[in-house]
Automatic annotation (TrEMBL):
Record-level Gene Ontology MF annotations: S-(hydroxymethyl)glutathione dehydrogenase [NAD(P)+] activity; zinc ion binding
Lineage: Eukaryota, Viridiplantae, Streptophyta, Embryophyta, Tracheophyta
Name of the protein in its database record: Enoyl reductase (ER) domain-containing protein
Biological processes, Gene Ontology terms: formaldehyde catabolic process
Enoyl reductase (ER) domain location: 17-372
Keyword Metal-binding appears in the UniProt entry: yes
Entry GO terms, CC: cytosol
UniProt keyword list: Metal-binding, NAD, Oxidoreductase, Zinc
UniProt source species: Phaseolus vulgaris (Kidney bean)
Subunit structure: Homodimer.
Cofactor: Zn(2+)
Assigned protein family: Belongs to the zinc-containing alcohol dehydrogenase family. Class-IV subfamily.
Length: 376
């Protein structure tokens, strides 16, 4: 029997306010409206953005249904949905692509003006399909994946091949794809160039993989966790710098291994404010380019202006510059062909009921990504 018109009661990870613990509780998920789909979640994963959402970024709206990385099966569709059907395997995205607005046709950006990033925790009609004890629930961006079911607007939902590994699909719904796209689409790394990647989490490893695929000859991974050396090498890193081993700055260490010149491209994947200037200073004077993908813990940061005035470029990036209609399909196809060693990312698995344990696991030096198994 179709459940399209029925409210579903299920479990989800909820935070009631700043400083409050994350709890798994029963919630209600309404049927999808005309341009929406309701998705039964297979698995999800923890991203750094989920942690910042508990601190009030990108909004201060609570109670909050958590999670934005994940993969699931379409359970029901709205009356006007023609591109997806029940049973399709999909991943959520936090940007859309109308293919007709000024930004989409420009070829200069992946940030659609018709379907922009949702920063208020609600669906495009400024309502929510999720509630708890009669109270509206907000989500981090376009949906909430740490839930057995969620509803998303179809423009923020992308179909993937059902043969894809669920954990891999979850990784490419945000973190890994963001790094990969930053090297591929934002920086457009040139063959034979040099690259520095600051922070070797899933995003940083994605940037290494993207730089490798573009033909970079020197790919320097930078992380204070010595255990990330092996991970970086698995994705294509050629050199590793542990800044904890030296009193010198990151930029000085990078210049030491590049003949004093710095790299052609750097990718700041940590969100640590002082490293913004360091990532810029680590690039070549006059031509160096820095792509910022790490979410800062502070709303404003200081920046070494001299580095900019000496001809370097710094660019912010959302979702690594990837367009969801065309580019995600390419990344997903590479996953299916095992072109990325994504099993290296999946270091820990927890059931939804133990989500709080997942936060503790993140402190483990061996942890890269925590996969959340969603039970039904």
């Amino acid at each position: 029997m179709s459940t399209t018109s029925q409210v579903i009661t299920c479990k989800a990870a909820i935070c009631w306010g700043l400083g409050q613990p994350v709890t798994v509780e029963e919630i209600q998920v309404d049927p999808p409206k005309a341009t929406e789909v309701r998705v039964k979640v297979l698995c999800a994963s923890i991203c750094h953005t989920d942690l910042t959402s508990l601190q009030g970024f990108p909004h201060m709206c609570f109670p909050l249904a958590l999670g934005h990385e994940g993969v699931g099966v379409v359970e029901s569709v709205g009356d006007e949905v023609t591109t997806l059907k029940e049973g399709d395997v999909v991943i959520p995205t936090y940007i859309g692509e109308c293919e007709t607005c000024e930004n989409c046709v420009s070829g200069k950006t992946n940030l659609c003006l018709t379907h922009p990033v949702r920063l208020n925790g609600l669906l495009p009609d400024n309502t929510s399909r999720m509630s708890i004890r009669g109270q509206r629930l907000y989500h981090v961006l376009s949906c909430a994946t740490w839930s057995e079911y969620f509803v998303s607007d179809v423009n923020y939902t992308v179909k993937v091949d059902s043969a894809i590994d669920p954990a891999h699909a979850s990784f490419i719904s945000c973190g890994f794809s963001t790094g990969f796209g930053a090297a591929w689409k934002e920086a457009k790394v040139e063959s034979g160039s040099s690259v520095a990647v600051l922070g070797l989490g899933a995003v940083g490893l994605g940037a290494i993989s993207g730089a490798k695929s573009m033909g970079a000859s020197k790919i320097i991974g930078i992380d204070k966790n010595e255990k990330k050396r092996e991970k970086g090498e698995a994705f294509g890193m050629t050199q590793f710098i542990n800044p904890g081993d030296s009193a010198k700055s990151v930029s000085e260490l990078v210049k030491e291994v590049t003949g004093g010149m710095g790299v052609d491209y750097s990718f700041e994947c940590t969100g640590i404010p002082p490293l913004l200037s360091q990532s810029l200073e680590a690039t070549k004077m006059g031509t160096g380019k820095t792509v910022v993908v790490g979410i800062p813990a502070e709303p404003t940061v200081s920046l070494g202006m001299l580095s900019l005035l000496l001809g370097r470029t710094m660019k912010g990036s959302a979702f690594g510059g990837l367009k969801v209609r065309s580019d995600i399909a390419i990344v997903a196809n590479k996953c299916l062909k095992k072109e990325f060693p994504l099993d290296e990312l999946s270091t820990h698995v927890v059931p939804l009921e133990d989500i709080s344990k997942g936060f503790e696991i993140l402190k483990d030096p061996n942890c890269v990504k925590v996969v959340i198994k969603i039970s039904h």
